[in-house]
């Protein structure tokens, strides 16, 4: 893969060079400007970003599965086309993000191997099953909606390649959310069975979507450092509260309800509040004990293993073409 | 890498000329850059009574629409399962193109019988489908999928290229959009034929096997019948047999470069155009139609 030559980015530097690098880095962060791949950066910053960007890439790739599950059964040809395009967008998002992560010095192959080996994480939300067509609506509206709340501030992340990848991803995500909303709206205004299907999907995806913002602020040890580095701009609870405020408005238009009778706007804090979330469940799913963890990883592993011979063939063919080309050039040079 | 180019064919960009005409905002036959034909445009023209195909034209459009629909259904299965992310995207794109062509053809065909694209896709039974059997062949491994796509894209390119000159303006317009897309499908499949044939011993073996799996169904693509004869004489359609020579020549160019031979296998009898299908179609339809049929009359 192309990133092999990036492995050497953190070169050996003298203490003076390190000190100068740190000073430059601190100045960039203080100015709220961008760190670029060739800039000096603290090892911990690189590690944090690599973890976050690769996890984000993995989430896009694993996140293709619950929706791909409905491509073949989409109930109209128009919906089938939209769903195909959406899942295809997610593969594209995965590609931009793996490319951004590669600029931090790790190859896509290595990241993919870590994912398949179960050593890398991805968003827990994709370990829940997409059981009905209405889940395509609820995933678009709630899951992509939560992702947008999380990701719009990431467009300003201090690491340049990540922030720039997020700009394009956010544009496409907003289409995804709208199509999810539209699916639910159509179902809600359809037959009683369709409306029931929509409500059931919202009931199942609401709490997992809220947990996508991560643990409560008092239980999120890494958040503070990420905010100091201008990677993260708002706390988990702040983003979650904003999201609840948006959903509570939109669910009325849908003619559905959120499965939470404790949602209220706190006039004192000027923030939206919601009922308690089951953080034990969150940690269980994160630890690999969710409904679809094994299924999702196995599917990725199977695709990767089944495709190994194709990737080997493409690489062998490219090598042969290169060898032919250089033999031809040498011949021309000799003549 | 060199991609075999059709020496006597029209390339990108030329196709639109002579097809578009009239008010580009109102016409289903509008084909201008960035203003491509959508199935919804055809549906609107049908609804407002601007177009209505004859029974023959509708039957012909149904054939081409069913081919594209069944292939889209097959290819869609690769999304999230491809050998590389780039191929998830590429095969997804080809599936989307095919689905777009299917929607246009089916919308137009349905106008003759007061049926929508979805009525035709979701509420017909196996023997009412008019696709040829190549399109329903299983994905198999990646080489089998590429072999199927190679045959399909070279066939469809020759077909749509000629259909842009149909006397039926809607068929011509659909073909004008489709031929540009199918040209990319040819490029994609030809490049993979070369890579797999010239890659490793394993990939070459699989490529040869993939071609052998698909080749029994090639003949059916080029069979004429009363319908295509009538429509070809009227200048509305293309006689399938008339595509064979260019198809054979262009396919041979790629296979020669890949040092492969046209598989020497017996041809299957076919019959898809009259509702005779392989065992595979029933499963494809069962999956595709299940949800729509659980909720007849519902809108989505």
How is this structure best described in words?
The complex is a heterodimer of chains A (335) and B (300). With 335 residues, chain A is mostly helical. In chain A, 65% of the residues lie in helices and 2% in strands. Chain A contains 13 helices and 2 strands. Chain A has helices at residues 15-31, 43-62, 64-68, 77-102, 108-116, 134-151, 160-188, 192-211, 223-228, 236-254, 279-286, 293-306, 308-334; strands spanning 264-266, 271-273. In chain A, strands 1-2 form a two-stranded antiparallel ribbon. The two termini of chain A are 34 Å apart. Chain B is mainly α and 300 residues long. Chain B has a single domain, classed as Ferritin, CATH 1.20.1260. Chain B contains 10 helices and no strands. Chain B is globular, with a radius of gyration of 19 Å. At the A-B interface, helix 3, helix 4, helix 7, helix 12 and helix 13 of A face helix 2, helix 3, helix 4, helix 6 and helix 7 of B.
Q: Rough shape of chain B? A: globular
**How many domains, in number, for the residues of chain B?**
1
The fold-level CATH name of chain B is: Ferritin
Number of DSSP strands of chain B? Answer: 0
Distance between the termini of chain A: 34 Å
User: What is the number of E strands of chain A?
Assistant: 2
Give a quick summary of the entry.
By secondary structure, chain A is mainly α. Helix content of chain A is 65%, strand content 2%.
Q: Helix and strand layout, with pairings?
A:
The complex is a heterodimer of chains A (335) and B (300).
Chain A: H1 15-31, H2 43-62, H3 64-68, H4 77-102, H5 108-116, H6 134-151, H7 160-188, H8 192-211, H9 223-228, H10 236-254, E1 264-266, E2 271-273, H11 279-286, H12 293-306, H13 308-334
Antiparallel strand pairs in A: 1-2
Helix pairs in contact in A: 2-4, 4-7, 6-7, 6-8, 6-10
Chain B: H1 39-47, H2 55-76, H3 85-110, H4 117-122, H5 142-163, H6 169-197, H7 201-214, H8 226-233, H9 244-257, H10 280-294
């Amino acid at each position: 893969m192309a990133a092999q030559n990036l492995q050497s980015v953190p070169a050996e530097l003298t203490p003076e060079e390190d000190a100068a690098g740190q000073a430059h880095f601190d100045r960039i962060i203080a100015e709220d400007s961008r760190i670029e791949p060739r800039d000096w950066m603290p090892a911990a910053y690189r590690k944090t970003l690599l973890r976050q960007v690769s996890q984000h890439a993995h989430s896009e790739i694993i996140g293709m599965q619950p929706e791909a599950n409905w491509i073949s059964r989409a109930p109209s040809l128009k919906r089938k086309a939209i769903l195909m395009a959406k899942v295809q967008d997610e593969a594209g998002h995965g590609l931009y993000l793996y490319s951004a992560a590669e600029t931090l010095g790790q190859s896509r192959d290595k990241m993919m191997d870590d994912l398949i080996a179960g050593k890398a994480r991805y968003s827990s939300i994709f370990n829940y099953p997409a059981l009905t067509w209405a889940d395509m609506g609820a995933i678009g509206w709630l899951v992509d909606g939560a992702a947008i709340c999380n990701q719009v501030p990431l467009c300003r992340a201090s690491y340049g390649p990540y922030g720039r990848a997020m700009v394009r991803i956010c544009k496409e995500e907003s289409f995804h959310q709208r199509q999810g909303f539209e699916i639910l709206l159509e179902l809600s205004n359809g037959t009683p069975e369709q409306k029931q299907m929509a409500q059931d999907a919202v009931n199942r995806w609401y709490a997992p979507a809220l947990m996508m913002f991560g643990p409560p602020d008092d239980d999120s040890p890494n958040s503070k450092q990420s905010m100091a580095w201008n990677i993260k701009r708002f706390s988990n609870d702040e983003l979650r509260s904003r999201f609840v405020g948006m959903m509570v408005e939109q669910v009325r238009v849908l003619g559905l309800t959120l499965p939470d009778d404790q949602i209220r706007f706190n006039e004192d804090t000027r923030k939206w509040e919601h009922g308690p979330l089951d953080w034990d469940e969150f940690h269980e799913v994160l630890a690999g004990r969710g409904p679809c963890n094994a299924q999702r990883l196995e599917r990725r592993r199977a695709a990767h293993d089944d495709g190994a011979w194709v990737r080997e063939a493409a690489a062998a063919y490219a090598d042969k073409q290169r060898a032919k080309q250089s033999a031809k050039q040498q011949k021309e040079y000799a003549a | 890498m060199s991609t075999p180019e059709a020496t006597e064919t029209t390339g990108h960009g030329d196709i639109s000329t002579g097809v578009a005409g009239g008010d580009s905002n109102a016409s289903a036959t509008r084909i201008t850059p960035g203003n491509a034909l959508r199935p919804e445009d055809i549906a609107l023209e049908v609804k407002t009574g601007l177009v209505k195909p004859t029974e023959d034209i509708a039957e012909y459009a149904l054939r081409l629409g069913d081919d594209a629909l069944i292939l889209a259904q097959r290819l869609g299965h690769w999304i999230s399962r491809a050998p590389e992310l780039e191929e998830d995207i590429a095969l997804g794109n080809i599936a989307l193109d095919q689905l777009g062509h299917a929607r246009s053809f089916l919308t137009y065909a349905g106008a003759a019988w007061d049926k929508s694209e979805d009525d035709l896709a979701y509420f017909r039974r196996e023997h009412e489908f008019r696709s040829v059997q190549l399109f329903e062949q299983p994905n198999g491994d990646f080489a089998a999928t590429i072999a199927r796509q190679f045959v399909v894209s070279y066939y469809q390119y020759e077909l749509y290229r000629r259909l842009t000159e149909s006397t039926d303006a809607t068929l011509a317009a659909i073909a004008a959009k489709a031929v540009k897309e199918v040209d990319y499908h040819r490029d994609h499949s030809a490049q993979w034929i070369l890579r797999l044939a010239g890659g490793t011993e394993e990939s070459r073996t699989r490529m040869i096997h993939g071609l052998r799996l698909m080749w029994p169904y090639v003949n059916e693509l080029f069979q004429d019948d009363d319908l295509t004869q009538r429509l070809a004489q009227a200048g509305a359609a293309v006689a399938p047999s008339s595509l064979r020579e260019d198809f054979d020549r262009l396919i041979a160019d790629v296979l020669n470069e890949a040092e492969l031979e046209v598989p020497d296998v017996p041809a299957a009898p076919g019959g898809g155009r009259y509702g005779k299908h392989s065992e595979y179609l029933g499963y494809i339809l069962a999956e595709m139609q299940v949800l729509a049929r659980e909720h007849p009359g519902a809108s989505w």
